[in-house]
Amino acid sequence: xxxxxxxxxxxxxxxxxxxxxxxxxxxxxxxxxxxxxxxxxxxxxxxxxxxxxxxxxxxxxxxxxxxxxxxxxxxxxxxxxxxxxxxxxxxxxxxxxxxxxxxxxxxxxxxxxxxxxxxxxxxxxxxxxxxxxxxxxxxxxxxxxxxxxxxxxxxxxxxxxxxxxxxxxxxxxxxxxxxxxxxxxxxxxxxxxxxxxxxxxxxxxxxxxxxxxxxxxxxxxxxxxxxxxxxxxxxxxxxxxxxxxxxxxxxxxxxxxxxxxxxxxxxxxxxxxxxxxxxxx
Length: 281
Hints:
It is built from nine helices and eight strands. The chain is an alpha/beta fold. An eight-stranded mixed sheet has the order 3-2-1-4-5-6-7-8, with helices on both faces. The longest helix is centred in the last third of the chain and has 31 residues. The termini are far apart. The relative contact order is 0.07.
């Protein structure tokens, strides 16, 4: 009786292993494979999103130098040979805009789709390939804060309906909000994003300098900054503009300029003040 139980257990265990192996094989077949070119901030954040998704497999990241590699997940494979990249479903070129076309020409693939994530470069920069397109996250990236891509809009473009459908499927797997836009429209988004992020961040960094210079409490500026962005979210930024410029309070403006006269920011203050007074694009 004991022998029969042992044999049944062995058979059950063998079938379990067989089923598990079959599952692994099938699972590996349906996974979407990805290779990344570049090791900057966007590469870091996207790699985190890819390796944490069970339906995606990050083959490797190509990087010409080792500067940022130590910041990436230790599980990721790196290579400095672009001509030896594994065959993948998607190749993400995440480098500076000027090198996109040069890198695109070095990638050898049979059926893979080549993508760049530039806000200003047209999709045709990749036209030496059969399948190509754009995957542009409208977001700011850094190494010290991982971005939640489920809260980041992605602007996509494909060279064909087939390429576009592949991109849409990738977006669905990543569970991101996406919108199909052409290169011209994407450039407009990029321009507006420069004001929303780059210029705004610069102004906030100047606020930091003033806070430090005059020994002010930074926490007192958080509520007013938050309220400013709430008004932007409700489409009321223009009509809710306040301050000495919109009131044409000349005496106050002169006092501000007097404080800034020995700084590098007086001209910027005057330009923004003039723009607010005009209140027109």
